[in-house]
Amino acid sequence: KHEKYKNFPMVPRVIFGNGSFDQLGEILLPKRRHSDAPFIFLVDDVFEGKELVGRIPLLFNDQIVFISSEEEPKTNQVDILVAKIKNDFEELPSGIIGIGGGTILDLAKAVSILLTNRGSSSEYQGWDLVHQPSIYHVGIPTISGTGAEVSRTTVLLGPTKKLGINSDYTTFDQVVLDPDLTQGVCKEQWFYTGMDCFIHCVESLDGTFLNAFSQSYGEKAFELCKEVYLNGLPASEAREKLMMASWHGGMSIAYSQVGVAHAMSYGLSYLLGIRHGIGNCMVFQHLKEFYPEGVELFYEMLEKHQIELPKNICANLTDDDFDTMIEVALKLEPLWENALGKNWRTIATPEKLRSIYQKI
Ligand code: NAD
Ligand code: ZN
Predict the structure, then answer these.
(1) Considering only CA atoms, which of 81, 87, 91 is closest in space to residue 60?
(2) Neighbours of 232 (CB within 10 A)
(3) To test the ligand 1 pocket, which listed residue (103, 154, 155, 169) has its Cβ within 8 A of the most ligand atoms?
(4) Å from CA of 197 to ligand 2 middle
(5) Is the CB of 249 under 6 A from ligand 1?
(6) Ligand 1, atom nearest to 72 Cα
(7) Ligand 2 centre from 278 Cα, in Å?
(8) Which end is more exposed in the chain, N or C (fewer Cβ atoms within 10 Å of the end residue's Cβ)?
C-alpha cells in the first residue's frame, strides 16, 4: 500500500522573455473586475523613480505601493498593508501584483490571501491553514534564485516564529519572467540570492524525500547554476539561465523539502535579522559533513566571484541567543527529516547545531 500523495497546485500561466513585462497591460485587462476594483502594484522601492515604474500599466484607480526590502516580510507588515487597502478602496482589488525579489513576491502572496481570509496573517503560518481562495495575484521577479515565483509558500517573520503560509491558495495565478528586469542587481546580491537556488537543489537532491519529480527539476536547476556561476556565460544568457534555474529549483522543492542550511538560516534570521540568501551561505559553508560535493562547488563559486562572507557573526552571542536560534531551527521538523531521515534527532542535536553556529 502506498502513502497518500499530495496534490500540488502549479502556476497556471507564465510568460517568459526579455521585454515580456510590456505585455502586463494586456495580461491584466481581462482580470479587471470593473473600474472601481483596482490593481495594486507592490513594488520594491529600489525602482522608485526608475524607468520600470513608467512601464507599469496603470488604469483608473490602480495604485503603486513602494516597499523596502531592507527587512524580510513580517506578519504585522502584511496586516497593515491589508488594512490600508481595505480602507483606501470600497471594493476588493482586482488583483495584487508583486514586482521585486523574494521579499516583495512573498508580500504580494500574503496580502492576496489576507484580503479574503479574516484575522492576522500570523494565524495562517503553517501548513494548509488557509480556507478561502485568495484574490488574483501576479509575481514578477526582478532578481533570480528564491523560487518564490513558483512555490506554494510565503515566508513570514511572525511574533513567535519564522514560518511560511503554505497553502494551495498561495501560488501565483500568473508569473511574468522577464530576465532583463534583473539587470540592476549588484554582484553580491546576485550571488547570495542565486546561491539560495543552488542550495535548494543540493538540499533537495541530497534529501531523503527525493523522488523522480523533484530530481528532474533539481538536476536541471543544479546544472544551470553551475553554468551561470562557474562557466562565465555572456551576461544576457546568464540572466536567462539563472531565471530558469530559480524556477526549476522552486519546482524541485515543491515535491520535496529543503534541509540543514535552510533550517539553520531561519535561526539566524529570526534572532539577528540576517537575510535569507546571505544567511544560507553563512551556514552552508560549514556543512561539508552533510553536503560534501555541494559545499566544495560552493567554495569554487565564492572564489571565482571573489565573494567574502561576513565573519564572527555569532562571536558575541549569549547562551540564550544560541538556544533561541537552535529552537527556531529545530522546529522545522520536515526540513530535518528530509536532510537526515526519520532518526534526525540523533544527529541534529542542540550541541551539534551550536557547534555550527559558533563557526559563523
Ligand atoms: P530581496 O527580495 O530581499 O531582494 C534583495 C535585494 O535586491 C534588495 O535590496 C532589493 O532591493 C534588491 N533588488 C531586487 N531586484 C533588483 C534589481 N532588479 N535591481 C537592483 N536591486 C534589486 O531578496 P531575495 O533573495 O530575492 O528574497 C529573499 C526573501 O525571499 C526572504 O524573505 C525569503 O524568506 C524569501 N524566500 C521565499 C521563498 C518562497 O518559496 N516563498 C523561497 C526562498 C526565499
Ligand atoms: Zn531558500
Answers:
(1) 91
(2) 9
(3) 103
(4) 7
(5) no
(6) 32
(7) 10
(8) N
**Of residues 216, 350, 198, 344, the one with CA closest to residue 261:** 198
What H or E segment, with its residue span, contains residue 95?
strand 95-100
β-strands 126-127, 162-166 pairing: parallel
Q: Separation of 208 CA from ligand 1 center, angstroms? A: 28
Q: What would the pLDDT profile of 251-288 be if each residue is shown by its tens digit?
A: 999 889 999 999 999 999 999 999 999 999 999 999 99
The C-alpha cell that represents 281 in the structure block: 551561505
Distance from the CA of 102 to the center of ligand 1, in angstroms? 4
What single letter denotes the amino acid at residue 99? I
CATH fold, domain 187-359, is Dehydroquinate synthase-like, alpha domain (1.20.1090)
Rounded distance, CA 188 to CA 228, Å? Answer: 14
Comparing C-alpha atoms, which of 166, 186, 156 is closest to residue 276? Answer: 156
Q: Whose CA is nearest to atom 43 of ligand 1?
A: 146
Residue type, 37: A
What is the CATH class of 14-182? alpha beta
Q: Which DSSP letter does residue 254 get?
A: H
Crossing angle of the two packed helices 350-359 and 319-330, in degrees rounded to 10 = 120
**Domain residue ranges of the chain, discontinuous segments joined by +:** 14-182, 187-359
Q: 140 and 97 in contact (C-beta within 8 Å)?
A: yes
The conformation of residue 35, written as its DSSP 8-state character, comes to T
Among 68-77, 154-163, 219-228, 268-277, which is the least confidently predicted range?
154-163
Residue pair 283/260 in contact (Cβ under 8 Å)? The answer is: yes
The model's pTM: 0.97
Instruction: Give the Cα separation of 48 and 42 in Å (integer).
Output: 11
3-state secondary structure of 326: helix
Q: Measured between alpha carbons, how far apart are the two ends of the chain, in Å?
A: 45
pLDDT tens-place string over residues 301-335: 999 999 999 999 999 999 999 999 999 999 999 99
Rounded to two decimals, the ipTM of the complex is 0.99
* Ligand 1 atom showing the smallest separation from residue 181 Cα: 18
Q: How far apart are CA 329 and CA 163, in angstroms?
A: 11
C-beta of residue 165 within 8 angstroms of C-beta of residue 123: no
